[in-house]
Amino acid sequence: MAASEKTAFRFLSRGPEATHAVARALSSVLDCGGVVIALRGPLGAGKTAFVKGLAEGLGLDPGIVSSPTFVVSQEYPCLARGVRLVHLDLYRLERTAELEATGFLDVLDGESIVAIEWADRLPDALPSDRLEIDLAASVELGEKVREISVVATGLVAESVMRRWGLCLGVAGTVELENVACP
Fold first, then answer.
1. Given this model, what pLDDT does residue 171 score?
2. Beta bridge partners of 85
3. CB 86 within 8 A of CB 75
4. How many Å from the N-terminal Cα to the C-terminal Cα in the chain?
5. Is the separation of the CB atoms in 43 and 136 below 8 Å?
6. For 13-22, how does the pLDDT look when each residue is reduced to its tens digit (9 = 90+)?
7. Which uninterrupted H or E stretch holds 48?
């Protein structure tokens, strides 16, 4: 993400559990579907870990979530919440037509929470209203650290991000250890 872009949040996560916790907090403010979460970052940055935390917060077993690199799309019904989590991985796709052939337009139905790994592969195919989450991994003093930067584009995403920030009681940059929403 360019330094000139407005970053609503920037989290520093010191492990997968902290990444899961941020995502669980996000899921706690998703009261319905219609939300698109565009995940960007290199291999090993924590995109799938984020989706596992999101799934856990939606009442699913995070162990059932795996990156759908070869199948492109996985769907997980969240019966207790009345939504479905749709997890896409665009790594192997090169054209918008390939994405549309997976039924992508059908999951933008207002009833689904759509988490897209490698969203930067086909940015023009994504809806303009989305949460953009950039994940970057680095090593500080021998410890792996993930930086999670979040920007909202569109009214739905801005509303979700506002509620997420209120839930976490944060703005700006925070380092996460024990994250919980009231």
1. 55
2. 76, 113
3. yes
4. 31
5. no
6. 888 888 888 9
7. helix 47-57
Q: Which two tokens stand for residue 177?
A: 């250890």
- For residues 146 and 136, the answer to whether their CB atoms sit within 8 Å is yes
User: What does the pLDDT average to over 121-129?
Assistant: 94
Joined tokens for residue 98: 């390939």
| Closest among 41, 44, 36 to 160, alpha carbons compared | 36
CATH 3.40.630.30 fits 16-176, yes or no: no
Q: How many CB atoms lie within 10 A of CB 32?
A: 13
pLDDT tens digits, 152-179: 999 999 999 988 888 887 655 455 444 5
Question: Is this structure's pTM higher than 0.90?
Answer: no
DSSP element (H, E) containing 116:
strand 112-117
Look up tokens 């380092």; give the residue: 175
Q: Is 74 strand, coil or helix?
A: strand
> What does the block give as tokens for 31?
């009261």
Query: b/e map of 102-131 (b: 16 or more CB within 10 Å)?
Result: bebeebbeeebbbbbbbbebbeebbeebbb
Q: What is the dihedral of CA 48, 54, 60, 64, to 10 degrees?
A: 0
Q: Which amino acid is at 135?
A: L
